[in-house]
């Protein structure tokens, strides 16, 4: 299986993207920001379309859109969770604000899609399909290396801010009183999540990112109560889902890799809820 | 979308009445306006409760269920509408099962909802690639085809809307009670859990009907934005409910009217106008602090507390 180059590229990029998704996903679940992560994954699509219709590299638009929206959500949102896990102190319309904001961005996506289909280069349908569903088996060696480096950097950055972020997520008031810059952390983490979303979009697609972000992390939260074990487990589950999905998609050619990856990730979650 | 592109010829005059009558001469525009109006009323009413219950993420996930529904229906060869309704219904039950339990924390609930969505999208993608060549329809699946609504679709939509609004009318009082203060409602013998599932099913039904017209990705423009705008402006339930419906209708009519004279699709104008109204409402509330409304503590909660 390791023979063809496209498999090795997919494994290289996929492993680090999965690691980044698992690790940041653990904090997303902890902070109850799943909807924000979801919105980021959908925002990637209009971003890529906008860049394509402006004639810039799709990836530039992808990163610009997700990081900007991520930072915006981090700045606007006050979604904090108390120790009991209940949302408290959050603005009641926070998830509504996310919903409205990303709806209009999707509306812009339609706008750019129309522009793109009217431009002489055309061929928007295929491009849209790639952004929405990813094409991990279509990565070139250079793209795969770049994706791996960015994903690894995002993972390390998340780990670096892990301790204060954990404090700020679990007990925001206490953390703020102790001088932890909770606001800055929220914005920084959301922007980081934007990077991860843009990165993962290229591998599993905008619509399927959620599976890698939510399922391994939720499984880790069920099994491990200790934070560091949980983060490590979330990363491990995500990488396992990625490897398993790639292998499965390689063996069964009619099975898209994105589907296989998500199905295995959710399978891990189901197994964890039976066990724990 | 291709229909919109063909319609580059009409140019708006400044005589609005003549523009409107020109626009109404076309059967497809009449159907689009009818369908859009029905959707605006139904989505407005259901969306208002969705925003109140903070079930926005669940609603979004249900709108995504339309994707496996449509592609699965194409794969096994049944009408797409059945696929939409079946898969949205299944999605509502799955969310209710995975995320509905009150004992679960907020983060676990949203993770459960996210999981339902991930599986749905993965399944949809699988169906698309098994079917092969359906990607040509992807655009209309995602962004709808407001200008291609048939007479039959209008009738189905009307029937679904009547059913949804009817059931909503019957459940309105206990549902509002359970949405505003679940603990007190439970203590007073209101079946909060059953109501939650019932609401998700209604939401699924409304979303399935809406997304056939507006597309999977743009359901929210009509479901969440008018309701969010209205609830930003006023905390009084009846007023904001009425405002939601009015805003929804306004957005649909304006969006369709402008799209008729433009090369860009109606979905873009509908989302843009409704977002502009939402932003306007938020700014208005900021400028006039006296009008700040907090939908989470409307009068019914306090009443309930006093009675209990």
Describe the structure concisely:
The complex is a heterodimer of chains A (276) and B (308). Chain A has 276 residues and is mostly helical.
Structure characterization notes:
The complex is a heterodimer of chains A (276) and B (308). With 276 residues, chain A is an all-alpha fold. Chain A is 79% helix and 1% strand. A two-stranded antiparallel sheet of chain A has the order 1-2. In chain A, strand 1 and strand 2 form a beta hairpin. Chain A is globular, with a radius of gyration of 18 Å. About 5% of the residues of chain A have low confidence. By secondary structure, chain B is mostly helical. Chain B has a single domain, classed as ABC transporter involved in vitamin B12 uptake, BtuC, CATH 1.10.3470.10. In chain B, helix 3 packs across helix 12. Chain B starts with a helix and ends with a helix. The N terminus and C terminus of chain B are likely disordered. Classes of the chains: A mainly alpha (276), B mainly alpha (308).
Features:
heterodimer, A: 276 residues, mainly alpha, ABC transporter involved in vitamin B12 uptake, BtuC, two-stranded antiparallel ribbon, 2 strands, 1% strand, B: 308 residues, 15 helices, 78% helix, globular, disordered N terminus, disordered C terminus
Please give the structural blueprint.
The complex is a heterodimer of chains A (276) and B (308).
Chain A: H1 5-31, H2 34-54, H3 58-76, E1 80-81, E2 87-88, H4 94-118, H5 124-133, H6 141-160, H7 162-170, H8 172-177, H9 182-204, H10 209-223, H11 227-251, H12 257-275
Antiparallel strand pairs in A: 1-2
Chain B: H1 2-6, H2 16-24, H3 27-52, H4 56-76, H5 80-99, H6 106-131, H7 138-143, H8 151-180, H9 182-187, H10 192-214, H11 219-223, H12 225-233, H13 237-260, H14 266-287, H15 299-307
Helix pairs in contact in B: 3-8, 3-10, 3-12, 3-13, 4-5, 4-6, 4-10, 5-6, 5-10, 8-10, 12-13, 12-14, 13-14
């Amino acid at each position: 299986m390791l023979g063809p180059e496209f498999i090795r590229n997919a494994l290289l990029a996929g492993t680090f993207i999965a690691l980044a998704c698992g690790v940041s996903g653990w904090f997303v679940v902890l902070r109850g920001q799943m909807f924000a992560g979801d919105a980021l994954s959908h925002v990637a699509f209009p971003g890529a379309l906008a860049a394509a219709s402006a004639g810039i590299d799709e990836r530039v638009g992808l990163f610009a859109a997700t990081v900007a929206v991520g930072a915006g959500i981090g700045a606007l949102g006050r979604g904090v969770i108390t120790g009991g896990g209940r949302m408290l102190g959050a603005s009641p319309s926070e998830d509504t604000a996310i919903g409205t904001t990303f709806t209009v961005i999707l509306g812009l996506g339609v706008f750019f899609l129309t522009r793109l289909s009217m431009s002489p280069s055309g061929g928007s349908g295929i491009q849209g399909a790639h952004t929405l569903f990813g094409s991990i088996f279509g990565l070139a060696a250079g793209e795969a290396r770049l994706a791996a480096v960015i994903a690894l950097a995002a993972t390390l950055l998340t780990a670096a801010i892990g301790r204060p972020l954990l404090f700020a997520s679990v007990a925001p008031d206490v953390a703020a009183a102790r001088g932890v810059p909770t606001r800055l952390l929220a914005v920084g983490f959301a922007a980081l999540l934007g990077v991860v979303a843009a990165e993962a979009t290229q591998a599993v697609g905008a619509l399927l990112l959620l599976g890698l972000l939510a399922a391994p992390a939720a499984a880790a939260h069920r099994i491990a109560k200790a934070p560091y074990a949980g983060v490590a487990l979330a990363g491990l589950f995500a990488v396992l889902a990625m490897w398993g999905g790639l292998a499965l998609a390689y063996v069964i050619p009619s099975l898209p890799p994105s589907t296989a990856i998500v199905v295995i990730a959710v399978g891990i979650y189901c197994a964890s809820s039976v066990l724990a | 979308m291709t229909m919109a592109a063909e319609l580059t010829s009409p140019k708006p005059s400044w005589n609005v009445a003549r523009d409107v009558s020109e626009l109404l001469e076309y059967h497809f525009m009449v159907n689009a306006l009818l369908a859009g109006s029905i959707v605006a009323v139904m989505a407005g009413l259901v969306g208002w409760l969705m925003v109140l219950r903070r079930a926005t993420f669940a609603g979004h996930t249900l709108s995504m269920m339309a994707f496996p529904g449509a592609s699965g229906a194409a794969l096994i060869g049944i009408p797409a509408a059945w696929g939409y309704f079946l898969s949205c219904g299944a999605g509502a039950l799955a969310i209710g099962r995975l995320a509905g339990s009150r004992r679960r924390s907020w983060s676990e609930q949203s993770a459960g909802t996210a999981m339902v969505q991930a599986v749905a999208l993965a399944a949809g993608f699988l169906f698309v690639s098994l079917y092969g060549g359906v990607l040509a329809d992807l655009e209309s699946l995602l962004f709808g085809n407001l200008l291609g609504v048939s007479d039959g679709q209008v009738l189905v939509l009307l029937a679904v809307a009547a059913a949804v609004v009817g059931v909503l009318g019957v459940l309105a009082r206990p549902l509002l009670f359970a949405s505003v203060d679940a603990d007190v409602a439970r203590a007073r013998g209101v079946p909060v859990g059953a109501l939650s599932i019932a609401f998700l099913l209604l939401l699924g039904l409304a979303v399935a009907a809406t997304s056939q017209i507006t597309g999977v990705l743009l359901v929210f423009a009509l479901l969440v934005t008018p309701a969010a705008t209205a609830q930003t402006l006023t905390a009084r339930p009846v007023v904001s409910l009425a405002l939601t419906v009015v805003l929804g209708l306004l957005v649909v009519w304006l969006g369709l009217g402008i799209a008729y004279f433009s090369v860009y699709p109606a979905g873009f104008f509908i989302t843009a106008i409704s977002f502009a109204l939402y932003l306007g409402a938020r700014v208005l509330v900021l400028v006039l602090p006296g009008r700040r409304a907090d939908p989470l503590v409307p009068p019914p909660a306090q009443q309930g507390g006093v009675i209990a």
